[in-house]
Amino acid sequence: MSATHSPRSRCSGRRAPGCRRTAQSSRSACPEHQLRDEEDRLTEDELTSAAFLVLFAGYENTVNLLGNGLVALLTDPAALARARNGITPTTVDELLRFDPPPQLAIRRFPKEDVVIGGVTVPKGETVLLSLVSAHHDPDRFAAPERLDLDRTDNPHLAFGHGPHYCLGASLARVEAEIGLGTLLTRFPNVALAVPESELQWRGSFRNRGLRTLPVTL
Ligand code: HEM
């Protein structure tokens, strides 16, 4: 996304007199609120979609990483004891592998017929890639059903792969390290307030996340 906001002309966030920008339009008579550069490299739809992705994909996945990660720790006493020594980048990677917030990648559409594992996927067909299946593949991960907070050989795909690798991965990792680490330090007795089987999960087969997470402190 290109923007005209240089340090010199940083947007004040306040609507300047005469500014005509609306929620639907990224063009503006007000230079302070103009989102495009002179080359107009993104269409209106692309710009809206990118803004949506940054705001909502980032928010929802991070919320779910905190929730799913905490449940994984609170239901595994050995892992919880280990996590109390500190939430490290290795810890966060294992939580991302074990119960990834997006269980599926964003849909793919082959531009031509492709053969995968002996199956022909026709051009234009919808392809759903299961990240969580890959994360629990015993041919790739030793004891994949075990939450191993010291796992170092961990090439998980929770942030995707290739040119569309998650833009916010570094931010999300730091948020999880600080969020979970602070919680366990500040509330050392945190525990589930209901049996694990009574936790309410949201009804999405792509995004795995809780409706609520009742805990006692
Ligand atoms: C735990 C937190 C997060 C997880 C698990 C996650 C996961 C992912 C995954 C799997 C993809 C690639 C989707 C695909 O190729 O099918 C992706 C892309 C993306 N993520 Fe995240 N994300 C997280 C946090 C964030 C945050 C905090 C932001 C923004 C601040 C963000 C912004 C994006 C954007 C913009 C893309 C699209 C990149 C592109 O298409 O080039 N994500 N994310």
UniProtKB/TrEMBL annotation:
| Residue ranges, annotated region (Disordered) | 1-42
> Could you give a GO molecular-function term held by this entry?
heme binding
Q: Which organism is it from?
A: Saccharopolyspora hordei
| Keyword Translocase in annotation | no
Record's family? Belongs to the cytochrome P450 family.
SUPFAM superfamilies of this UniProt entry? Cytochrome P450
Keywords for the protein's UniProt record, in alphabetical order: Heme, Iron, Metal-binding, Monooxygenase, Oxidoreductase
This chain's protein is named Cytochrome P450
